[in-house]
Structures are given as C-alpha cells and as structure tokens.
C-alpha cells in the first residue's frame, strides 16, 4: 500500500513537472520571438548615394558591395545591431533585387569605421558610385564574424546569399518588393 502510494505520487509529480516544463518552453519561445520582432527595428528603409568603400568587395572577394555614406549609417536606429541582414534593393529607381547587407566593422578586415555594405544579387555592367541606393532591410541572418582565411569569409557570404534568397521568397518578405517605397515616385526617405 505504502509503495503504491509512492509510485502514484511519483507519477503525479512527474506529470506536473513535464507540463510545467512544456509550459516554460512554450513561454520562452513566444518570448524569444516577441523579443526578436520588437528589438530588431525591422523593416528598416534607407536611401543614399553610393560611395566608395575600401574597394576590396569586388577585387579580393569577387562579391561587389554598394556602400552607404556615413549619414545613412548614423541614421540606423540603435535596435539594429551589427550583423548580416537581407532585404530588397534598387539602384536609381531601377528594378528591385534581392540583397544581403553587412552592418558593422568587418572583423576580418578590422575596419575602424562602421559601414552598411549591400551586395545586390544582380550583375550590373559598371560601377555604381554616385547613384541612389534604396534598400529595405527585413531580416537578420547572423552576427559578423572573423575568419582564418579569405576563402572562409567568401564561403560564408555565399551561404548568406543562398539563405537570403530563400527567406525573401517567403510571401511576407516577397511583398516588400512592390512596396510604395520602391514603386511610388513621390516616396523619398522613409528613415
Ligand atoms: C553578406 C555579407 C556578409 C559579410 N560578412 C562578413 C563577416 O562576417 N566578417 C567580415 O569581416 N566581413 C564581412 N563582410 C564584409 C566584407 O568583408 C566586405 O564587404 C568587404 O570587405 C568589401 O568591403 P569594401 O567593398 O568596403 O572593400 C560581409 C559582407 C557581405 C556583403
């Protein structure tokens, strides 16, 4: 009788523990997704003239990037931390293309100035300096990282490009390709 009671109590305690754990997990995952949504400050719209970067993008990496001027970088809200992001971009009001963007100091190159470097997933015939770049930043891919070789950095960026392409095919993200920010000629800087 005594053992039966202990077993019963034990299984009751286990059941209670299991449901408390699953409640805690459900609570934590909803808290994480809420935090992600509210702390990233996304979507974020930026407009600016393309300036010269350090010129390593196309030469050393084979991955050209269009750089925003300092004022645009300084306009980023503090909730948008450094890291690698994806979104949509257009140059001089042309077609809207998928893009990946690096925000930060490029630990591999140890830059001293914070930059917003956009790699537009499209081949342009010439360089884009002085043209207007419009981007909407929609999602975070990963933090900036340091690498032991340039080949590893290139491989990581190629992975970012593939991940971004998939994320941007999601209907919620694809919808931004035709946002008035890109389509309305009267739309200027939204932030
Ligand atoms: C999608 C993407 C991811 C990047 N990830 C990193 C990174 O993790 N670490 C890093 O040091 N630089 C990273 N970079 C920055 C490149 O190193 C940078 O674009 C390159 O140095 C070219 O800069 P430049 O055109 O100003 O010379 C990334 C760039 C892009 C476009």
UniProtKB/TrEMBL annotation:
A molecular function (GO) term: kinase activity
Keywords: ATP-binding, Flavoprotein, FMN, Kinase, Nucleotide-binding, Transferase
Protein name: riboflavin kinase
Broadest EC class assigned to this enzyme: transferase
PANTHER family found in the cross-reference section: RIBOFLAVIN KINASE, RIBOFLAVIN KINASE/FMN ADENYLYLTRANSFERASE
Pathway annotation from the record: Cofactor biosynthesis; FMN biosynthesis; FMN from riboflavin (ATP route): step 1/1
Listed EC numbers: 2.7.1.26
Source organism, top-level taxon: Eukaryota
Sequence ranges assigned to domain Riboflavin kinase in this UniProt record: 39-169
Transmembrane regions listed in the UniProt entry: none
Pfam families reported in the protein's UniProt record: Flavokinase
């Amino acid at each position: 009788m005594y053992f039966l009671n202990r077993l019963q109590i034990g299984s009751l305690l286990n059941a209670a523990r299991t449901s408390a754990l699953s409640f805690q997990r459900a609570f934590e995952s909803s808290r994480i997704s809420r935090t992600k949504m509210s702390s990233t400050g996304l979507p974020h719209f930026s407009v600016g003239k393309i300036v010269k970067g350090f010129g390593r993008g196309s030469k050393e990496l084979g991955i050209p990037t269009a750089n925003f001027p300092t004022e645009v970088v300084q306009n980023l809200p503090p909730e948008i931390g450094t890291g690698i992001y994806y979104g949509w971009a257009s140059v001089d009001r042309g077609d809207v293309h998928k893009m990946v963007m690096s925000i930060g100091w490029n630990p591999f190159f140890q830059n001293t100035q914070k930059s917003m470097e956009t790699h537009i997933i499209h081949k342009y015939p010439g360089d884009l300096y002085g043209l207007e770049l419009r981007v909407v930043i929609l999602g975070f891919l990963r933090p900036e990282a340091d690498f032991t070789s340039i080949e590893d950095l290139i491989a990581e960026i190629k992975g970012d490009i593939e991940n971004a392409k998939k994320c941007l095919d999601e209907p919620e993200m694809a919808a931004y390709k035709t946002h008035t920010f890109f389509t309305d000629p009267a739309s200027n800087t939204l932030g």
